[in-house]
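Lab meeting, item 3. Inverse folding demo.
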C-alpha cells in the first residue's frame, strides 16, 4: 500500500523573499531591539506598577516608545559591540 503525498502546506507554497546579506547588521539590530525592548518593558512596568489591572496595556504603551528608541540606540552601538566581542573572545 503506497501513501499518497500530502498536499503542500500553505507555508511551503508561499515563495519566501529574503533581504540581501548586506542588510544583516540592520536586521540584527532590529530583531535585537524588538526582543530586548519588549522584555525590558515587561520588567520595568511590573517593577514600577505591579502586575495588576492594565499590565498588558501599560507594557504595550511603554513598548511603543521603547522599541524605536532601542533600535535607534542599537544601530550605532553594534559596531562598537562587535569590536569589543572580537577583543574579548578568542578566534
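The presenter then showed the designed sequence:
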Amino acid at each position: 500500500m503506497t501513501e499518497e503525498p500530502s498536499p503542500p502546506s500553505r507555508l511551503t507554497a508561499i515563495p519566501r523573499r529574503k533581504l540581501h546579506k548586506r542588510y544583516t547588521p540592520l536586521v540584527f539590530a532590529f530583531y535585537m531591539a524588538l526582543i530586548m525592548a519588549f522584555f525590558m518593558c515587561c520588567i520595568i512596568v511590573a517593577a514600577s506598577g505591579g502586575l495588576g489591572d492594565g499590565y498588558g496595556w501599560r507594557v504595550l504603551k511603554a513598548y511603543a516608545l521603547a522599541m524605536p528608541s532601542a533600535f535607534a540606540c542599537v544601530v550605532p552601538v553594534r559596531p562598537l559591540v562587535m569590536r569589543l566581542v572580537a577583543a574579548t573572545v578568542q578566534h
